[in-house]
Amino acid sequence: MRIIVQNAKCQGHARCAAHAPHIFKLDDAGYILPGNIQVVEGEELTASRGVRSCPERALEIDGEPSSTG
Amino acid sequence: MAKNPVPDHVPPEMVRDFSLFTSPGMSPTPNGDPHAAVACVHAGPPIFYSPLNTRDGRGTWVITRASDQRRVLQDTETFSSHRNIFASALGESWPMIPLELDPPSHGAFRSLLNPLLSPKRVSVLEPAVRERAIRLIDGIAASGTSCDVMKDFAFPFTVHIFLHLLGLPDDRIDTFVGWARDLLHGDDTKRPPAARTIVSFIDELAAARREDLVDDFMTFIVQAQVEGRRLTKQEVRGVGVLVFVAGLDTVAAAIGFDLAYLARNLKDQELLRSEPNRIVLAAEELLRAYPTVQLIRVATKDIDFEGAPIRKGDYVSCATMIANRDPTEFECPNTVDLAREDNRHATFGYGPHRCLGSHLARREIVIGLEEWLSRIPAFRIKNGTAPITSGGHVFGIENLILDWS
Predict the structure, then answer these.
(1) Burial category of A16 from C-beta neighbours within 10 Å (exposed 0-12, middle 13-18, buried 19 and up)
(2) CA distances (Å), B327 to each of B43, B180, B338, in order?
(3) Residue in chain A nearest B71 by alpha carbon
(4) Residues of A in contact with B320 (CB under 8 A)
(5) Contact A13 B348 (CB under 8 A)
(6) What is the mean pLDDT of residues B22-30?
């Protein structure tokens, strides 16, 4: 599973990192680091919780239709 | 409150009788539920015009869908945050910073302040926050089986942390809370003097720190650089006033609404008490259900938005309490479900102006609930008392008397 990160949309809510700090890594100001994320096997559920927690819709699971709005 | 006429460009059929200040349940109400009271807008259109939806009596467009609020708050070119809301109460014009600056100038100040309240920094502050909660709650538990939780816990807890952050002595808590109350909840005779007092206080504090550097927030601000230069006196004031106003009563109100909910829902209270690891997720649901602020933007150009003719200069309201009860965004939005997972609430806003203090606010709420539930047995609203809720620019709750006898 791969997570597409749209850095331009990240506003530093840090809710993804609250679910899984080892998957969603933040810079010193609290915004997600650039680059898409390859999720290792067994971490899919936690990762998808992190994706689904982003208020800005900055995260997307590769292959899923992007959420509207 | 003087009422301004509906502008000519607003079609009469788009006007609704609705206001966060004057609608039923918005003035101080015993046992009120202002969040539920505003959720009624979801039975109507996605956008409408409300003639009396600001403190100064101006009307706003009201955006009811969470997805449309995201569009507005993420589009800072069309919807500006530059309102001079505080300064205009004094007949002046200067922005609270960074809230009332738009990108790109917003970015430099935001980058300056973000590290002070980042998740990493907040984790450093956490032990002091927890120690303060424990000290207050132990004192309450030792002195009886009931308390006024706003006066005895929520305000002293959150305001102390905020004063500590600013480097101010906490023996002035009552004074500062009084200023904030007059400013945010007072009438037209109380607001301007409160605003004036806060400005003078911030200006004097900044001047003192320029003279004598200490290790605190205001010293950091007067020494800081943006774009290779020191901040002007007005910029220092703009930052100081915003931090002062934003930090004084929002988190206390959130904790109050949360404890009022738990006092009325003993099963949920017991669930969190017996399984405290659920509190982090539950706190997000309580944040969704009981947010405290209305965000307002100003249109920078004419735009047709979901059928509404928004014109340059119009106010556009994104009330977090409305977005958070949007049935197209949340299943059963008016039900508090402490195990809710899909919970991308709007409580801290969307877009570049996302609440700078959100990480600290979250930790204060979680720690406050953790320590309260572990130290105070099953509590209810004291018989014969009624908490008083209010709507307005910042939703609030007072006279919340909890009893565990």
Answers:
(1) buried
(2) 10, 34, 17
(3) A69
(4) none
(5) yes
(6) 94
Structure tokens at B76: 């800072």
Say if the Cβ atoms of A14 and B359 lie within 8 Å: yes
- Name chain B contacts of A56, Cβ cutoff 8 Å: 70, 74, 350-351
Average pLDDT for residues B282-291, to the nearest whole number? 98
Cα–Cα distance measured from residue B33 to residue A10, given in angstroms and rounded to the nearest whole number:
33
Determine the pLDDT at residue A66.
Answer: 62
| Contact residues, chain B, for A69 at CB < 8 Å | 66-68, 70-71
Q: Kind of pairing, strands B60-63 and B315-319?
A: parallel
Q: What is the pTM of this model?
A: 0.95
CA-to-CA distance for B360 and B247, rounded, in angstroms? 10
Predicted pLDDT at B341? 94
What gap in Å lies between CA B189 and CA B187, rounded to an integer?
Answer: 5
- Are residues B118 and A17, on separate chains, in Cβ contact within 8 Å? no
pLDDT band at A67 (very low <50, low <70, confident <90, very high): low
CB atoms within 10 A of CB B135: 14
- Residue B2: pLDDT over 60: no
Q: In which band, very low, low, confident or very high, does the pLDDT at B3 lie, cut at 50, 70 and 90?
A: low
**Binary contact (B74, A49; C-beta < 8 A):** no
A17 CB neighbours in chain B (<8 A) are 119
Closest CA to B298 of B312, B283, B287, B308: B312
Helices B279-289 and B250-264 cross at an angle (nearest 10°) of 110
**How much is the mean pLDDT over chain B?**
94
Q: State whether residue B340 sits within 8 Å of chain A by CB.
A: no
Q: Does B342 touch chain A (CB under 8 A)?
A: yes
The answer to whether B106 faces chain A, any CB pair under 8 Å, is no
Averaged over A36-44, what is the pLDDT? 96
Task: Please state the ipTM of this predicted complex.
Answer: 0.93
Question: How many CA atoms within 13 Å lie on the side-chain side of A39?
Answer: 23
> Which residues in chain A touch residue B284, judged by CB atoms under 8 angstroms apart?
15
pLDDT band of B245, cuts 50, 70, 90: confident
pLDDT at A69: 45
Of B67, B64, B55, nearest to B22 by C-alpha is B55
Q: Could you tell me which chain A residue has the CA closest to the CA of B344?
A: A55
